[in-house]
Amino acid sequence: MSVLVIAELDSHGIKAATRSAISAASQLGEEVHLLVTGNDVAGIAIEATKIAGVSKVLHADALAYAHGLAENLTPLLVQLAANYSVLIAAATSFGKNVLPRAAALLDVAMVSEVIQIINATTFVRPMYAGNINATVVAPAGLRILTIRPTVFEAVAATGGAAALETLTATAETGQTTWVSRDLVELDRPELATARVVISGGRSLGSAEGFKSTLTPLADVLGAAIGATRAAVDAGMAPNDSQVGQTGTVVAPELYMAFGVSGAAQHVGGIKDSKVIVAVNIDADAPIFQVADYGLVADLFTVIPELEAALKA
Amino acid sequence: MKILVSIKRVVDYQIRPRPTQDGLDVELSNVKMSINPFDENAVEGAVRLKEAGVASEVVVVAVGTAANQDVLRHALAMGADRAILIETPSVVQPLTAAKYLQAIVGRETPDLVLTGKQAIDDDAAETAQMLAGLLNWSQATFASNIQLADGRATVVREIDGGQETLSLQLPAVISVDLRLNEPRFIKLPALMMAKKKPIETLPAADFAVSAPALTVLQIAEPPARKPGKILNNVAELVAALRAEKVLP
To answer: Which ipTM value was assigned to this complex?
Structure first.
């Protein structure tokens, strides 16, 4: 038996997150096959045969697969599952949308967002926004996994020489129609993938204060701006800037928290940051327990000083 | 149009979860529990559709222990019409939950099922998609806008790096994101009124549900970060961050 990785495509071809899924798949000690689906993607399927670590590329082409709709893709996954011991995708919005539907149809208890593969049936996955790690064993038989792409280093896009097999596509179910897609062109980095994130809490005082205080520093650092749930609830920052368990989980190289107390739900969402800096006037704030560097000081004096120091 | 909303009772988002002594579960005794935040958005979304005259009835359902009465009451106070509890001896995993919900859908025949995009305890984000699969219904996950008209739902969903719009044939299952709305604050009169609304309790044994489940070997806190350093001024901070190579 082999492992089947479900590829996710964008306008540039196979996404890097899929190559992370291949890397995770190769830890299972079986042959790795890659399923490439889409509309008019023969070129991408040929390109995919060069990906390191893949022995066979399965290519299914149909209009029904054009936008990765779960309703149209799952019948194909169900059909292919009989030949595989494991189905894997990255835990992206695509993987999370498609695989659970397939798992239910195959009557499999799936394992989502795997961060560590211990052996072929034992996996570690985060719960409570990363505040807890669970080690779980999947039942015997087919396993279905999504893996967190940031923890598995992507395999190389070239260097492989996989066989290519063309599959007959399954039918369009007609249940859901794709209308449009808007990818955000941000003038600053996206929160979830930014290299630097600076965020503020309720102590910034007002929406105006939040923006005028953090924006200049974010500009200097090329940072995304985040906020605590309290700041969002108080109307100081937009909903989509919320960092934490109920917002966006971030893992930047540098996370700077200004006037953030360090509520469990916020800390859960920043734990995987490489370096955490906390600036808070309250020396007892829980944020200092997770910070690598702390300044017990007023953010309104620290931020201008930081800007000046970085511009110098 | 009838809307079924599936909700879950979870450790409150402000509480830091701890493993139990035996390392096989998360400590739930004497811990504040609340409605899963994303499910609260789903209830709010359904109630707003009713207030707009689009939906005629909002039924909330929870699968779990008897303690779920409190979150069902919360949803009733938000404006749901009635509640169903499928009472299980313990918390169930997503596939099991989806199968119970499938049974309730068979009985209630809603036009739409709404639920949160994930529960903040297991963070699995599986139940809605599993239910849609079991029912062979259309699905939309991570919804931030839902419009209903002419037997279809137009859904804006949050995807990596942006949004996409789908048009779903009803009946459908939709899981919702925090961005869908801001749940209302419950006032005392609404709480009092909710006490009069019915909660129907159905024992799990009444359903012929069986599903494979994951075995939990260990529940643990992730490895601790190395201890931090309190610095004296901005100059020290900049020097430290440059030494870490996270600043130019």
So the answer is: 0.95
